[in-house]
Amino acid sequence: MSDAATARRLKDHSASLETMTRFVLATLALASGVYTYLGVRSLLDGTAAIVFFAAVVYSAAVSVGIYGFWTYLMRFLPEMRDGSSRMALLGIMALGSAMIIAMSSWLNAAALAGSAAVEQHLAETLEDYTADLDQANTNALGALSLLPDIQRAEERFARLADDERSSGALTGTSGSGSVVQLLTQMSAQMRELEANIRATQEEVAQLFQEGQERLAAMRGLVSESGAIAPRSDRFAEEAVALAGVIASLEQTSIAPSVARAAADLSGGFIAPVADGSTADLAGRQDQVMATIRASVDAQSKALSDAAAEILAQPKVAERRYVPLSSAEAVLRYAGDFIPSWAGAISIDLLPGVLVAIMGVVQGAIRRGDEHLADADRVTAADMLRSLELHDALVARRAAVAPPAETPVAAPNEAEPAAAPIPSRQSAGENVTPIPFSERKRQDP
Questions:
Q1: Whether the Cβ atoms of residue 157 and residue 186 lie closer than 8 Å to each other
Q2: Rounded distance, CA 362 to CA 15, Å?
Q3: Helices (DSSP H) in 253-379: which residue ranges?
Q4: Coiled-coil annotation: which residues (predicted)?
């Protein structure tokens, strides 16, 4: 196919698609305006009438702006022949596309994936609160790991007291003396510390059970169907209640009390005066009580170190649930909703593809026209018009020109008269010729 035929066909197709192009631009602009309305409505506060009116005005402005922007570019960009003008319009196109994304595309994404983004925010917040509850419960129950050591120390002191009382295993003299009294005192302190730890265990279990119930309610709100706004409000109420449970668990930990009790075992050790009846027995009692003191110091250090490890565990940071609107959520979790973002941006920037198509087509048309001769550029209509103009000019010359004088021969001249010169008009055609277009109009 020749360049002339290709250029002619491209021109015909471009002209036939003009209505379709306008329809496509209007449809895309309308779709963007509708989704912009749905997105902007979630950001406005006030009465229902004010929110509706403001959202409609904003979405209408977006639709008109998008339609006008791409219409101007589709008209002017393909006609630019020099590189500087084309690059200038391309830069304007990039700037306008960025502005369209800023004023419309993110709201379209909020309308497409806003509810899902808010649900994801609730789900991630739920995971954070679950981890906080587990950490608080672990910290609160950390002192329970000291129970075996405390029980062994209590049983050892009690057994030594019994052995000393019954057989004098430590001093060699049976009976209830100073050593038995000291061992019984140490056993009672250990038993009291064990009772304190066990008392907190039940309270910790109750608080943890309450926290689990709050988490179950929050999970139900995340997976529940229906509008996301009321679910988010109820989720916030449950989150506040759960934060209170976590704070109570943090305060219930017995580890600080264990650390103080362990320090009192050594620092507050009060040994009774040896009450042996003889100096030898009293000396042996002093030696045994010194040994008991060393054992108490070792037990105190072990408990203190264990309590320090529990206290060194990371504390649960104070957490506050922050509700998000659908537009804010879709921005925060944009990476998880790439398909929705791609669809929202494509609605606004798809006319840019049409602009590129028109630019390529116009470039092909110009390249085809450059190889055409002047005769190839003349259409049948141009030729008919030229004939009409030619006939009109001929008729005007004939009407304006003076009639030609015919010489008359003398009677006595023997020479014959010269034959008349043939002309384009016959002798009977003394009227002005009518142009082709006028003849066509006068025909019945």
A1: yes
A2: 12
A3: 255-267, 279-311, 326-332, 338-349, 351-370
A4: 183-210
Domain membership of residue 88 (yes or no) is no
Cα dist. 308→138, 250, 263, 305, 311 in Å?
15, 16, 11, 5, 5
Supply angle C-alpha 215, 219, 225, rounded to 5: 150
Reading phi first (left if > 0) and then psi (alpha if -120 to 50, else beta), residue 226 is in left
Asked whether residue 239 falls in the same domain as residue 177, the answer is yes
Q: Is the pTM of this model over 0.85?
A: no
User: How many domains does the chain fold into?
Assistant: 2
Rounded Cα distance between 428 and 419, Å, is 17
CA-CA distance, 258 to 266, in Å (whole number)?
A: 13
Residue 341 forms part of a structural domain:
yes
| Residues 93-152 pLDDT 10s | 999 999 999 888 888 888 888 888 898 999 999 999 999 898 888 888 777 777 787 788
CA distance 321 to 179: 59
> pLDDT tens digit string along 282-331?
666 667 777 777 777 777 777 777 777 777 777 777 888 888 888 888 88
Burial status of residue 354 (CB atoms within 10 A of its CB: 0-12, 13-18, 19 or more): middle
Q: How far apart are CA 295 and CA 265, in angstroms?
A: 10
Q: Interior CA angle at 245 toward 230 and 124, to 5°? A: 50
Evaluate whether 59 touches 36 at the Cβ level (below 8 Å). Answer: yes
In this structure, the answer to whether residues 258 and 153 fall within a common structural domain is yes
Q: Is residue 398, in this structure, part of any structural domain at all?
A: no
How much is the CA Rg of the chain, to the nearest whole Å? 52
In which domain, by residue range, is 42 found?
A: 3-79+337-370
